Amino acid sequence: MHHVMSQPRSIAMIGAGLAGLSCAQALTAQGHHVQIFEKSRGVGGRMSTRSFEDWACDHGAQYFTATDPAFKLQVERWQSVGAAALWDAKMTSFDAEGWQTIKPSVGRFVGTPSMTSPGKQLAKDLTIHFSTTIDQLLREGGGWTLHSKEHGLNASRFDTVLLAIPSKQAEVLVQPHSQVLYQYCQDAVMLPNWTLMVYAKAPLPLDFDAAFINQGMYSWLARSSSKPMRPQAEAWVAQATSEWSSAHEHLTKDEAAPLLVDGFEALTGYRPELFQNHLWRFARLAQPNDTGPQFDPTLQLGLCGDWTTGQKVEGAWLSGQELARILFIHA
Ligand SMILES: Cc1cc2nc3c(=O)[nH]c(=O)nc-3n(C[C@H](O)[C@H](O)[C@H](O)COP(=O)(O)OP(=O)(O)OC[C@H]3O[C@@H](n4cnc5c(N)ncnc54)[C@H](O)[C@@H]3O)c2cc1C
Q: How far is the CA of 100 from the centre of ligand 1 (A)?
């Protein structure tokens, strides 16, 4: 099929996670003018590394895999500029039988030197407004303007608005404009995740780098400092199950901390003294969803994100590429 180059459009992208950045980059390559609005102070979203004194700990996505040919190429580009590397982790699993070594079956990649590095690489030539939480989309004369919590009404007028944020956060923004998109968001229920980051003065006597935990309150345990280009100082991350996290979602950080610490000690035999904890409110989908990004060509309003495609880092990136392709077709 032969496509005619579309007219350049002014596009607002909400969210600078991997999906938003991937989409914005593809749209920019098509010749469109894209401005990204991001509520936090940096890019990467749930791909995130927390730094504390001499320590660093990946407290969101732990690694990513690559199966799609286009994403594989993207990962190779990141590797070639030092923004990602293979994590040659010694893997185990834990269940009633105890600890069992797992043979690596897939390549596990991480951002280097931090989990935000791949996002930073994508963001290089993009225009991003940080600390800008979009709380309202206003439709005016066939175009869009944006309102943010921090800065009020934005002066720019956009032809198209795209949301690359978790379903629950997208839901409130699309509700006044599209019942179909609203329903699509509502159907994608996302579950929380309580995460514990542990900093230790000496290496813990555990003979592995990462473990899938199949019983108890945790589902994942990893030596974050075993990843390439991380600080040497011993750092561990433990992620609670979706069930445990949902049941304890209402707790404050201080209330959840002793429970997370007790669980860590029960699992590893080590009682953390120096630690931080974090609640991801929208960590992952309750039910898998692969229906793909959505776009309403009349409204010029669209949605992408991991929760539309594959639920993972790779899916987030692919969803951004796919939404850009859909726009190209509708232009
Ligand atoms: C604890 C945890 C562990 C995980 N482990 C893995 C793993 O091992 N492997 C894997 O592949 N995936 C993992 N994931 C999932 C992976 O992190 C996500 O699939 C992926 O990063 C999602 O990218 P995204 O761009 O779709 O969304 P996000 O990364 O969530 O990006 C959305 C962005 O939008 C911003 N935003 C939200 N609302 C607004 C608003 N109103 N205005 C402006 N900005 C807004 C947010 O600040 C954020 O930066 C994990 C996730 C969590 C939470």
A: 30
